[in-house]
Design goal:
This protein is an alpha/beta fold and 361 residues long. The chain folds into 3 domains: 33 residues; 115 residues, no CATH class; 209 residues, Rossmann fold, CATH 3.40.50.410. The protein is built from 11 helices and 13 strands. The strands form 4 sheets. It has a 6-stranded mixed sheet, sandwiched between helices. It has a 3-stranded antiparallel sheet with strand order 1-2-13. Strands 3-12 form a two-stranded antiparallel ribbon. The protein is rod-shaped.
Length: 361
Amino acid sequence: MKTKNKATRFKENKVHKKKIEINFERINLNVLNNISFANPWFLLLLLLVPFFLFWQWKKYRQQYAEFKFSSLDAVKDNLTIKAKLRPFLNLLKTIAFALLVIAFARPQNALKEEKITTEGIDIVLVTDISGSMLAQDFQPDRLEASKNTGIEFVNARPNDRIGLVVFAGESFTQCPITTDHGVLKKLMSEIKSGLIEDGTAIGMGLATAVNRIKDSESKSKIIVLLTDGVNNKGFIDPLTAAETAKEFDIKVYTIGVGTKGMAPYPVRDLFGRTVLQNMEVQIDEELLNEIAINTGGKYFRATNNNSLQNIYGEIDRLEKTEVEVTSIKRYLELFHPLALIAALLLILDLLLRYTIFRGIF
């Protein structure tokens, strides 16, 4: 029974070893398939290797005279190891020559070389940061819910250039359109109410976003405008800003944020404490819908966190466009070790030729 177990284990180890060898062969083949030469015409010099060997052999025969004996019995025991190895000394130069030729051909290993078809759109997120965005009909409030959902939207679109504009009584660009989504998300997480004069300047926020994206060469340009109020500040009419967006083929999606009816707003009482007070939710849905229709977009109403996430998810599904992205080709140069080995062989040849092999025998 023990003999059978040993035989079984031996067979399993043999099969396992064979699998490992096959896997190594596949790996080696893949590595060879990725190797290319920047100067392949240098490889033609390898055709000179046979002639180089012949010339070295002929030179050796001329340099060291040949004696003919009827029998080698008298001298065979007197031949030293140096004498026997000396003819092979010329192989060092030949191998060095071949390695230098391959090094001049510049072998390279392609680390990455492919074409990818993916989606790519230029997007500007426009977020209302007025005081009313602190209402707690969303958790923890409208502004934080909008920021968290916006970050999730950015994560879902890794190939897009995305920017961020914020507005209240006025507007400014928090982050220009960029592919560095790490910076964008950091800046998005830092926005808060009270950074600028309070109010709701929808026209200013939209105009700032249009100005940021209008010169983009992207085939598709969209703006996602999120607000919870009525336009009451700014010197640019929202519909005028929408017309400008239409002229530059910019599609605007608008989102009204707020529950229907009453919502708890944080207010200061007579003692300076922050308390929640139910106030009526006022969103100019007619204006937001008109902006969206005029630019080819769509209006959405978000009444809670889940509906806001679903809206961003729908916008994500609606805005897909295919672009071809050619990935950057990076090559790992492989000629350095070849050139180093060739140099070492030439140095070794010189050292041996003028030290150990300096004499004939």
